């Protein structure tokens, strides 16, 4: 009798659990509260733009002229480097062996050249005594010229090999900081333009921020206008900006911010500002909300100058 009711009871329990899980899955979660409110424009009239923080040398993607296996790495992420400091070395054993061969060739051809020069010197003495003919002397001279040419070629080969050895060690082109290090010992370092640079470095004292200004507002921006930047995500982290330059070519906007009103066909004027980081927790690659003073008083002052 009891068995007759077990299966229906189990089925009812299963249906109840399924409905309970479905109702919880469809429940709308409340949006997470923003950590920081959006910054408020500090000027009555302003031009707003989104900026990307970069090094003042721009972000330099380091590559190698000669592909090969990385044998030495001299830096790490965050290292400060000077112009000419070594960054990494490609395996140079084969090149050093070539230099040894070329050095031996230089020594051998140098000895041969000295011998032929001596033979010409002796020939000049013997021809006066009519011991050898003029033709024999000319042969010695041609042999000496050939030996000297071989010596010069051997020297050139040795210098080229030394240059290639130097090129196997990649050095810093500027003073700066290592911001990314994407190579490891034993890995193959390719040449050419890479999607992921082997090393990314730049000078971050001071930092720059590259601001995209919509082309419709470009005429309102003046170089001596006040500007302030707020770090994206925290309106308490802000800094005054110093004008550096306009990038005088208006380009299509490629770094979209995700704003629903943003158009992919927008063209922008890029304006570069600088600021001193100090103790602010700001890093290259972060975004800034930038406001540029565009008040009438500011424009009149600019026009007067």
What is this structure's SSE topology?
Layout: H1 3-25, E1 46-55, E2 60-62, E3 68-73, E4 80-81, E5 86-90, H2 93-128, H3 134-167, E6 169-171, E7 176-181, E8 188-189, E9 199-202, E10 207-214, E11 227-231, E12 238-240, E13 242-252, E14 267-275, E15 287-293, H4 296-304
Antiparallel strand pairs: 1-10, 1-15, 2-9, 3-5, 3-8, 4-7, 5-6, 7-9, 10-14, 11-12, 11-15, 13-14
Helix pairs in contact: 2-3
What's this model, at a glance?
The protein is α+β, with helices and mostly antiparallel strands.
- Rg of Cα set: 36 Å
Order of helices and strands: HEEEEEHHEEEEEEEEEEH
Largest sheet: 7 strands, antiparallel
Order of strands, main sheet, comes to 12-11-15-1-10-14-13
Number of strands: 15
- The number of helical segments is 4
Q: Structural class, from secondary structure content?
A: alpha+beta
* Shape, principal axes of CA atoms: elongated
Uncertain stretches of 5 or more adjacent residues: none
Beta-strand fraction estimate: 25-35%
Helix content: 25-40%
**Overall pLDDT:** 86
How far the N terminus sits from the C terminus, by CA atoms, comes to 103 Å
